[in-house]
# Entry
Amino acid sequence: MGWLWAIIVGFVLGLIAKAVIPGKQHSPLWLTTICGVLGAIVGNAVARALGVAATRGIDWSRHAFQLVAAIIIVAAADALYMATLGKHKHQRA
# Structure
């Protein structure tokens, strides 16, 4: 069940990150989801390192770290995707 929640959270974080990043992102949905999962993992690690991983109630600070990490990872992955596979796919279309 933990993996299912990781995928759901990654999907949501990836979509929010795509919405926050200005301009159009060309990366596919599966890549956005993977980047969101990675953002959640990195955000948790940063929160744990700063001592805010576990608080009472909703962990807003941990979620903020996850979202910032997801935004950075989605932006980097989209740039890398367009530099490698994306340009080739869009030139054929």
